[in-house]
Amino acid sequence: MGPVVVLGDEATCAGFALAGVETLSPSPAEAPAAFARALESASMVVVTLGLAAALSPGALRRAIAGERPIVVVMPDLVDPDADTGVAARVRTVLGIGA
Fold first, then answer.
1. Burial annotation 45-82 (CB, 10 A radius, 16+ → b, else e)
2. Fewer Cβ atoms within 10 Å of its own Cβ: the N or the C terminal residue of the chain?
3. What angle do CA 23, 79, 65 make, to 5 degrees?
4. H or E segment and range at residue 32
5. pLDDT for the residue numbered 84
6. How confident is the model at residue 97, as a pLDDT?
7. What is the C-alpha separation between 88 and 98, in angstroms, rounded?
8. Cα–Cα distance, 50 to 26 (Å, whole number)
């Protein structure tokens, strides 16, 4: 079983790193490659909403729908109320709502 990996902004990752969690804070351009590497090595991947917006909707959908690793999109620490459309895509993938 691999580690839990958090991909997101520096502030969020700093908090998780203090708890001993492996973290990555890639730029939006680096996000797809970092996400792909995390999917290969981790047992659980946590992605902040802002970083998830830099991923292709199809890649994110496939990762969330897959069995392993577990993939979770969480709100950003910096702006937890921002919705860049990822939340709606996640609800659609999970079959929640209209």
1. bbbbbbbbbbbeeeebbebbeeeebebebebbbeeeee
2. C
3. 55
4. helix 31-41
5. 59
6. 67
7. 10
8. 11
Distance CA 52, CA 7 (A): 9
CB atoms within 10 A of CB 19: 9
CB proximity list for 75: less than 8 A, separation 6 or greater = 48, 49, 81, 82
Q: How far apart are the first and last CA of the chain?
A: 36
Cα separation of 68 and 85, whole Å? 24
- pLDDT (tens digit per residue) in 33-88: 999 999 999 999 999 998 999 999 889 999 999 889 999 998 877 665 665 576 67
Radius of gyration of the chain (CA): 13
pTM: predicted TM-score of the whole model, two decimal places: 0.76
